[in-house]
Write a structure and sequence with these properties.
The structure is a single chain. The protein has 168 residues and is mostly helical. It has one domain. The chain has helices at 2-21, 26-40, 47-74, 79-96, 103-124, 129-167. The chain is elongated, with a radius of gyration of 19 Å.
Length: 168
Amino acid sequence: MFYVAASIVVLMSLVGIGLTLLTLPGAWLMLAVAAACNLWQPGMFSWWTIGVLAGIALLAELIEFGASALGAAKTGGTRSGALGSVAGALLGALAGTPFFPPVGTIAGAILGAGLGALIAERGIANRRWRDSAKVAGGAAAGRLVATVVKASAAAAIALVLIVALFIA
């Protein structure tokens, strides 16, 4: 039964990476499956390993949540620009998903963060186009960094889980 549980962990780790690219909670799926399999087949993983990986997943979530807002703020954006970038990233990811996922999701989130910041800066904060565009670029760059960080964290979590199967 160990090999069945290990196969499930490997499969869900790969699925989890894909879900993360779709801006879904793939890392949490990996961890939930690993914990469930560890309960089913005690000793598959150390609970410390699962706990540390959960910390990495939480850190990646926090970075993802704040990166586009931080990118907008670093380029001189207002609070409304930062909030617009977060809302725009979410809406852009949803709008882009039907178009060649996960590339459409990623591109939609990046473009959405930029457009959300641009609209908020221009429409709510009444800033000039040049200033609004600068903030939009910062928001989009922040969202790109967030996507890379979160996907890298998901890949690292998957790698540790898979390697841990062979060490245990």
